[in-house]
User: Fold these one by one.
Assistant:
Number 1:
Amino acid sequence: MSKDICDILGIEYPIFQGGMAWISEAGLASAVSNAGGLGIIAAGAAPADVIKEEIRKAKGATDKPFAVNIMLMSPHADEIAQLRCDEGVKIVTTGAGSPAKYMEMFAAAGVKVIPVVPSVAIAKKMARIGATAVIAEGMEAGGHIGKLTTMALVPQIVDAVDIPVIAAGGIADGRGVAAAFALGASGVQIGTRFVVARECIAHDNYKQAIIKAKDIDTVITGAIAGHPVRALRNRMTSKFLELEREEALKEKPDLEKIETFAAGALRRAVVDGDVAEGSVMAGQVAAMVSKEQTAKEIIEEIWGQYMKVRA
Ligand code: TUI
């Protein structure tokens, strides 16, 4: 039986804050860690010097463990992996690819690696190459997603590996935590709900778009080019889906045009607050997020609700 994820990582609640590009910086991550969860700084596509600054800020703001998320599609992934070792961050999560080539370096530095995985095959591979745990992320999640739902994915991965499994995608409250544990998960990762944390630097327009969202307001773009992304429906996603429909009818769809259509769109929404033309990445639980709260309030409310559901 695997040890408790809280003991392994030195945290109080088995709640990870999703590493969300442009959103999860030092302020949010340190607030989550100070509240007893696992705060995660997302490297996204940012260069290493920017992330170095965030790591230093987080170190100054919390003495609790926090992690760095390496987005493996980033052109700066190599530098960030190296930086993490230089700065002594002890926990790394990865997304959007395989961290296989860094595993030796991480092991030598005593880093615990927790990759996000979208399938049983990839989860098994990660366990084999030394991952401490895996995050099984269902397609209810926001941002770059796989093909399976959390409900189907988590128990299959729990059965396939003997390391702890953290459930992600579609979890926003204590009922979701209880469900994840019922599926065999050892913890949860929550993204969308932490976007509206008071300590989160996302533009207020982005937060309000999540707070106003209804159940069916997210769409998946980019699927025909192989990189599906879930975001709130807006003018940008409507144009994107129209482009996909047009290209799909062609004998030779211009996949490059699809891949690059939304370049810079996440920054436009998070930083500039352009929620019409930007990419407002959010999960299917956006409609369950109804108000801004501190990270501590979010964690304590979720945990309190979980304890009641369990009782
Ligand atoms: O990474 C995410 N979600 C993200 S990354 C991101 S930044 C971005 N912006 C624009 C376009 C694309 C990305 C926004 N949201 N979630 C974790 C995740 N990882 N979901 C799925 C995967 C994944 C997919 C394939 C993990 C591994 C994998 O393959 C591994 C292999 O062996 O190839």
Number 2:
Amino acid sequence: MIVSMAIDNETLERFDRAIKKKGYSSRSEAMRELIRDFIGSGEWEFGDGESIAVITLLYGKDMKKHELMRIQHRYREISTMLHTHIDPVNCLEVYVIKAKGDRIEELLRDFRSLHGVKVVKFVRSACEL
Ligand code: NI
């Protein structure tokens, strides 16, 4: 199956450099591995109990801060958050949340849907508490 996608030049150039450095023979080979890793990332395997998750959010200057704040206030389960200015235009935030799996998944979806978000990463630190 052939799949085409839209991507900006800068990201594609960085992707090409990264796959060359890591020794992939083609973009397709690298994308297949990324997709398998994405599917198997465990995000969909929360149990019924509460989990503790660490979420990192990288966003650029086009983030609408009031939308981010609205999300932060909607999730009272967030116990800690930390903001770091990583360069003149990008910010990194780290969240610790203790909640049921479906609430954590909902928060991840809300973060990813925000305009200006570049990377959302997630680590489940403990589950079934
Ligand atoms: Ni900042």
